[in-house]
From TrEMBL:
GO MF term list: oxidoreductase activity
PROSITE patterns referenced in this protein's UniProt entry, alphabetically: ADH_SHORT
Name of the protein in its database record: Ketoreductase domain-containing protein
Keyword list, A-Z: Oxidoreductase
The Ketoreductase domain, residue ranges: 5-188
Stored PANTHER family: EG:BACR7A4.14 PROTEIN-RELATED, ZGC:101858
Single biological process term from Gene Ontology: lipid metabolic process
InterPro entries registered for this protein in UniProt: KR_dom (IPR057326), NAD(P)-bd_dom_sf (IPR036291), Sc_DH/Rdtase_CS (IPR020904), SDR_fam (IPR002347)
Amino acid sequence: MFKNKVVLITGASSGIGAATAKHFSTLGASLSLTGRNVENLNKIAEQCAGEVKPLLIIADMTKESDVESIIKKTIEHFGRLDVLVNNAGVIETGGIENTSLEQYDRIFNTNVRSVYHLTMLAVPHLEKAKGNIVNVSSVTGIRASAGVLSYCMSKAAIDHFTECVALDLAPKQIRVNSVNPGVIVTELHKRGGLNEEQYAEFLNRCKTTHALGRPGKPEEVANSIAFLASDNASFITGTILPVDGGRHSMCPR
């Protein structure tokens, strides 16, 4: 499905990004994978199928020079770019009474500014390939959630970014869509501040907060990303696709 196509995935060293990398590799894609954790990125690369060895780029998405090097190294290595998956993101707990401007800047620099920057740089190459973009947002971009204010705001920004950029790039035949996961079993929330006990309770709550009664798996999001990036979705652009077990349809909390 993606043979002879180059797919760039940010935040590919764990969670949804890692699952997406492995899935695209089974579909024949040539992969450019970025992340901050060298060891994890190497492990994921070893788990990827396919004949073409993934290009690994160690990068901090909050550094402009690193973002620029991602595109530069990808094009130097493969000569083209067909799909950009903007997956890298972070979360931190905090509501309006106990957040800070520093937290706001950290979240937005990673979750929004870097996506804005990388997409700008990728467009000329995607135009040549008539490629497409899939942004990884969140159900919190669609509906409010208490206690993660900066994160929710950042994902709402990504949703609007997706819709606006889809309109900007439609004349160039570049499609732009997003997936909006609900709770997915990854390390994201623990890295964001939840301890083991809190995380277990957080997952348990999915029985009532998600219509399907469970959290999702990274592979389920990866499947949706690959669909949106494929020719099977050739007439889909500007779409915000919940992959959340019905969470976006449930009554608040």
